Amino acid sequence: MPDTAQAGRQGGDISPRVNRLTLTDFRNYSSLSLDLEPGAVVFTGENGAGKTNLLEALSFLTPGRGLRRATYGEVARDGGDGGFAIHAEIEGPFGECSIGTGTTGAGDSDAGRRVRINGAPAKSAEALLEWLRVTWITPSMDGLFTGSSGDRRRFVDRLVLAIDPSHGQRALDYEKAMRGRNRLLTENSRDARWFEAIETQMAETGTAIAAARAELVRLLTAMVARLPNDTPFPQADVVLAGSLEEAIGHRPAVDIEEEFRRRLAEGRERDRAAGRTLDGPHRSDLLVRHRPKNMPAELCSTGEQKALLVGIILSHARLCGEVSGLVPILLLDEIAAHLDAGRRAALFSILEELGCQVFMTGTEPALFSALRGHAQFLAVDHGRVSADTA
Ligand SMILES: Nc1ncnc2c1ncn2[C@@H]1O[C@H](COP(=O)(O)OP(=O)(O)OP(=O)(O)O)[C@@H](O)[C@H]1O
């Protein structure tokens, strides 16, 4: 990786980076402080050593529950006091910054984790997005194209959030309104005024969610199409299946909002029978096609699906840099083991060109030998991390 992979302006984009990561009572780390280099950082170690835990800690530098979507109780170290702390010294768009996040233990989990930026409490975790963006690929995403639509919606929303920080609040507002409507349905309420108020809110936030997703997909498809034909990460067609998302761009947003509000009102009896809201962007899906093969992603081989996902994440990183000015920090868990030598070399070369900080894990250091001399190698050994100078 080039030494120029620093938090500086490169063609208009900034690549924020973590200079130091400090963990307290996080997973199998009671106390750890790591100095990190820009560019590629490779964590190697045997199974269960704690490599993914390090990526997970880094994934807490963005809003949400991290790359495993674990509860805070799960990530707090067994045998600790129930709290955990992650501290990162970063270099971002406004210079150096210190980010602290974690929970203080029992009773805190409901309130969510706290975030401090330069020592001051942040109003919400969304404030982290002013400093850096983080995206990832983990082995649990291997079933993304074949698994549940909920996982794909969360995936899309995570990609949208990295580009448009207001998406998180939108999603929270929609979910809150929908929970309110679902409560009215299960309580068998006939209070038309309550229904109307809630459905108006759902129509407004739901249409905004659909518009943000549609925009992401439009930009991402264009970016994926820029992947050169000779890379092993295939071009893909990415579309959203959802009544609202499909209408975006073809009709004025006010019409779509009004139609959704009307559909919600007309669907009350059907939804009452189901006990929940059946229509809306919480039911949308992401469809991906392997363009060269003209085949739905779910029918492609496991390796082809992985290559599609890598292509999407790399394209998204480029897009995020162009749209937000911040190239995301990438967390690639066990990626190298799943790619053949040609694909690995292509991945390393695209990462070098992106110039972002990228954290990779693997049990076999040999898989990363092409990066020796260009990357920081760290050996992970059950709660301890040391320089791997092999
Ligand atoms: N809350 C916790 N407290 C203490 N240890 C934990 C906690 N949660 C997980 N662990 C331990 O962390 C280890 C797993 O770490 P991790 O998933 O990072 O391993 P890994 O190096 O990525 O392994 P693999 O190569 O198998 O994916 C296990 O030994 C597990 O018992």
From TrEMBL:
* Limits of the AAA+ ATPase domain: 37-381
GO cellular component entries: cytoplasm
Q: Does the keyword Ribonucleoprotein apply?
A: no
Kindly give the InterPro entries that the UniProt entry links to this protein: AAA+_ATPase (IPR003593), DNA-binding_RecF (IPR001238), DNA-binding_RecF_CS (IPR018078), P-loop_NTPase (IPR027417), RecF/RecN/SMC_N (IPR003395), RecF_2 (IPR042174)
Which is a GO BP term held by this UniProt record? Answer: DNA synthesis involved in DNA repair
- SUPFAM superfamilies xref list: P-loop containing nucleoside triphosphate hydrolases
Q: Where in the cell is it found?
A: Cytoplasm
Highest taxon listed in the record's lineage: Bacteria
An example of a GO molecular function for this protein is: ATP binding
**Sites where the protein binds ATP:** 45-52
Keywords tagged on the record = ATP-binding, Cytoplasm, DNA damage, DNA repair, DNA replication, DNA-binding, Nucleotide-binding, SOS response
Gene3D superfamilies with a match to the protein in the record: P-loop containing nucleotide triphosphate hydrolases (3.40.50.300), RecF/RecN/SMC, N-terminal domain (1.20.1050.90)
- Pfam families reported in the protein's UniProt record: SMC_N (PF02463)
UniProt keyword annotation of DNA-binding present: yes
UniProt-listed NCBIfam families: recf
The family note in this entry says: Belongs to the RecF family.
Outline what the protein does.
The RecF protein is involved in DNA metabolism; it is required for DNA replication and normal SOS inducibility. RecF binds preferentially to single-stranded, linear DNA. It also seems to bind ATP.
Record protein name field: DNA replication and repair protein RecF
UniProt source species: Neomesorhizobium albiziae
